[in-house]
């Protein structure tokens, strides 16, 4: 998988890291959804894994959802 980023001039490293994390979160969610849709996960497994992803990225972003 190859991902390209357009980095605006003057973007601070911290902002770039956040943008990369947001893209990674979206890719992880899409991959999990694809697994569910192809029948590799039950609805319960999908819900559990979605929660794991939500927790992981909440910590990464410092969210307190």
Mean pLDDT: 84
Helicity, as a percent range: 55-70%
Evaluate the radius of gyration.
14 Å
> Biggest β-sheet: count, sense, barrel?
none
- Share of β-strand residues: under 5%
Distance between the termini: 30 Å
- Ranges where pLDDT stays below 50 over 5 or more residues in a row are none
Please tally the β strands and state the result.
Answer: 0
What structural category arises from helix and sheet content? mainly alpha
Shape estimate: elongated
Helical run tally: 2
List the helices and strands in order: HH
Descriptive report:
- The structure is a single chain.
- The chain is mainly α and 65 residues long.
- The chain has a domain at 15-34 and 41-61.
- Helices cover 68% and strands 0% of the residues.
- The chain has 2 helices and no strands.
- It has helices at residues 13-37, 43-61.
- Helix 1 (13-37) packs antiparallel against helix 2 (43-61).
- The protein is elongated, with a radius of gyration of 14 Å.
- The mean pLDDT is 84.
